[in-house]
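Weekly structure sync, notes
Attendees: PL (lead), two postdocs, one rotation student
Agenda item 3: pending single-chain targets
PL asked that the sequence for the first pending target be pasted directly into the notes so everyone works from the same version. It is reproduced below exactly as submitted, 71 residues in total.
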Amino acid sequence: MGRDTGKVLGGPAIALVGIGAVIDIILFYFMFKFADEGNLFMVILTAVLIGIIGLGVAKGLVSLSRRNYEK
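Predicted structure, written out during the meeting:
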């Protein structure tokens, strides 16, 4: 039976996901604000930033899980 992922990742993973979620919520707010203003460039830019934050969180979780599974 494999290890429990929740026990392996623990607090750092929760903090990483929480910080990423807060940043994404702020970026979504600005993206909709820019959309209301009709600023297409800023909408695309914020969407790209949301994707970058999501990829960063995913890579961080993979890094945490690899480091903790090796123990």
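Discussion points:
- Residues 16-66 form one domain.
- The first helix runs from residue 5 to 37.
Action: rotation student to compare against the earlier draft before next sync.
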